[in-house]
Design a protein that fits this description.
Layout (H helix, E strand, L loop, with lengths): L14 H18 L26 E5 L5 E3 L2 E3 L1 H14 L5 E5 L5 H13 L5 E3 L5
Helix pairs in contact: 2-3
């Protein structure tokens, strides 16, 4: 009777190539993410020696000189901006909102946005400025 020899195959996963690929992807995202931060061209008001710029994880809402509202780069009515902010808060209850108001923007438009956000329960709402 002939003896059947089985060859053992190497069924393990090689982690080294996967770690190399993940490291390269991490480096690419770390370099490109700050470059993706674009927005509406605003002339921010000057206030004090240090600027209030907000953190990278905050929702960026802009009010231009004509009183139009923008969420990131998308122009929306004020009510729609508030609805989308509420939806984003569902994923992150500690969400921060930074409002960028153009120097020539109507004060009422900026404060209306801030008031609307406060009315629906947002506690961390700030105004972006640039240093003098």
């Amino acid at each position: 009777m002939a003896r059947v020899r089985r060859r053992q195959s190497d069924a393990g996963i090689q982690l080294t190539p996967m770690i190399d690929v993940m490291t390269v992807l991490l480096a690419v995202f770390m370099v490109t993410t700050p470059m993706m931060t674009t927005g509406i061209d605003l002339e921010l008001p000057r206030a004090g020696a240090s600027a209030m710029t907000g953190n990278d994880h905050a929702i960026q809402i802009s009010v231009d000189a004509n009183g139009r509202y923008f969420l990131s780069e998308t122009q929306l009515p004020r009510e729609e901006v508030v609805k989308r902010a509420i939806a984003m808060r569902g994923e992150n209850p500690n969400l921060t909102i930074m409002i960028s108001g153009d120097t020539n923007a109507d004060y009422g438009a900026v404060m209306a946005m801030m008031g609307s956000l406060k009315d629906v329960g947002f506690q961390k709402v700030g105004l972006r400025t640039q240093p003098e």
